[in-house]
Amino acid sequence: MADSEGLGKNFSTLENYHIFVPYTTARNGGKETFTLRSGEPCQVAIPSKTQDSQEITIKGRGQDGKDITVVLHTLYDRQLRIADQVYQEIDKNTQFVEQASKAKCKFVYEQVEDGEYINDLIALDFLDYVISSSKLDSKIQERYQLASINSRLLGISQAIESTLAQSKLTEIEKKLIRGTFAYVRAGEPVPDFKALTDIDSIVASSTLPLEIKQTYTLSSANSRGLTVDFILVKQIKESQLTDEKKNNYQSTYQQVRDGKTVEDTATLKSLDSFIDKAKIPENAKAVYSIARKQNLDNQVASGEKSDAFVQTAQAFKDQLTDAKDKGAAIVPQATRVLSTLGAETATGVSITSLSGAAATNATLAVLGGGSVAAGGLGMLGGLAVATGGAALIGAAGVLSIALVSEMDSEDQKNLGIAIGTGTVAGTATILAAWTAASALGAAGTLSGAAAITATISTIGGLSVMTGGAALVASGTAFLIWSLLKGGKTRDSSVLHQLETRTYTYTEDIIPGYWGEFLQQNITPKNGGIEEGFSAPNIPLDKLSKSLSSWLSLDYEEKVIALIDYSVFKDAKEGVVFTNEKMAWKIFLSEADSIKYENLAKFVNKESKLTSLLSDAKQKQELSKLKTVVDILSDEKYSTNLSKLQELVTIVGSDKNLSELVSNEKYKNKLPKLKNAVAILSDEKYSHNLSKLKDVVDVLSNEPDLVKFFSSQLVSQLSEKNYTKDLSRLKEVVDRFLDESDKDNFTKLLRQIGQKYSTV
User: Fold this and answer.
1) How far apart are CA 293 and CA 399, in angstroms?
2) Count helices and strands in the chain by DSSP H and E runs
3) End-to-end Cα spacing for the chain
4) Over pLDDT 90: what percentage of the chain?
5) Spatial separation of the C-alpha atoms in residues 515 and 536, rounded to whole Å
6) How far is the C-alpha of 485 from the C-alpha of 417, rounded, in Å?
7) How far apart are CA 640 and CA 654, in angstroms?
8) Which residues, in sequence order, are bridge partners of residue 19?
9) Residues facing 504 on adjacent strands
10) What phi-psi label fits residue 276: left (phi over 0), alpha (psi between -120 and 50 degrees) or beta?
């Protein structure tokens, strides 16, 4: 305690762990297991009727055999009855477009309350906004937010464990990785850079949503930056330099760390040499070097920084698109080989070393203010935005991306990463943008619209315009935007956009067969439909209009593609493909839909019809009928001897054809019969829904003409469900103005029907 006197009243050298306790366990009592910073599992007995923030001391489980404190967090509360208040907010105080949204919010809340990882992260974002913008007591909001973040962190833990289960690592190596994540989770310096890079690689290559990957990477960059800062400050303080020189180095270094202009260039060069020659981990030197380079490259006034940032954002992302192959290029050439950087430990950094030096106070206050060691919650406390040390954290993030990009396939295989499943290149682009946003001070030195525009333009997720916000699919964009915007006033336009996101997909890879299939066949660039959009690139304003005006979905249903054929391009008419059905709206008609299984039945019936029409006997019969009808349609056939002879030969003893020739009642019906026969005889017409509907109409409205077709053909064309679906689908096809769109859409319907039974 004497050593840590200068660190403030919240600081404690005792190891602290913050864990979330599910509702049932908190109410009834039980056991919860969490990971210590040593990498060992630790089980804690949870008393019944647990209170939020209740502390439990466990003897001898900390480093060096010291005690640890476990702080319990839960949504269980006998007096507040939080769930009742949340449900009331959902039912009475929020205007939803879809009734199903209320059920969705309640279902997600139950998962959060039970301490479960939530696959539907989009719905969780929606519920987060509902609660954060409500008038619920701030304590309830804070407790919910912690529980919501906990569900995300569970996803990271699960990804790490599932990867390690496939790895070739020793138990000691696995334990080191688990323990290192415990440090990152606590927002503290890490003892091993190699283990941190391993976790970075596991998360980047996982199937976790980008939002969770981004949240983790910012926390990882924060821990790496905090570690480097701790090492460099300690190196300066414990050197043999004079006090004056130490102070000058410390002051100059802090300017570099914070991305500020260094006026004393002589001291800066001297500090560069001091750090380069120091016996410290190469990671520390590399991060400093990158931060130093950013300092040189960004000597612009803060007022100009936002505009410059926005203009160069796309170029920055383009530069990092090939990060997987060129990760080394991100790191200044003055640093050592990346493989060396990825294999070293952060010598001397541990939880027990976070006390003593006066410099530690500055480190924790500026970079680790939310760390558990400084009395915070670590990652459980929410999205970290640097209040200082922005350049250093940004540099640490860029280095992390480079190291992940450089990891070879053998290292990945040993680590348990499935080769070919990684998305490092795509992830690196966005993750680098995050850390760069921090490094350039968007979250620290800019404020208001400038900060929002700079940060969001960089990640390409949200465009903040005068008069409102236009959200796209990225949940991360919303998180940053809401964080920077501040305030808790509910914005109905944001609410509707967030709700709309819960009914579609926001990742490039959509689970299941239909995602990839529809992505490939809907959009014009793939030869699909004009005005066709597939997730995650469906404009939310269009989908929102569809939901509010005609589209009805179940709470678990997701929209994969949308076709907007409305006159005003507002999607108040159009076609939507979900993971369960196709739905559509036609002007002045009620909205309609067909499940894929019924579409498959329709296509199956159609296939039987096609097969029947290609049968040699059927073709012969239709050919005879077509010839007879063609002759009879010619008003002068009776004066043409050759035509009469041909007619007699064809008709022969066929009673139906004889009646067609001799009975005057069929004369006025010949045009309809001729059209029907022509359609059935021509292969290109027999696949045209509109043409087939014409034939069905003839058979339905002209019962006298039915006898001229085979019973098998009539049976196929008169089947109740087939004719009903044919009529509905014809209306949709006819709504397209372009003939190629009609053909592509009809082809798409058949492909869906044919594929359904095999998917």
Assistant:
1) 13
2) 33, 12
3) 64
4) 40
5) 10
6) 38
7) 22
8) 72
9) 559
10) alpha
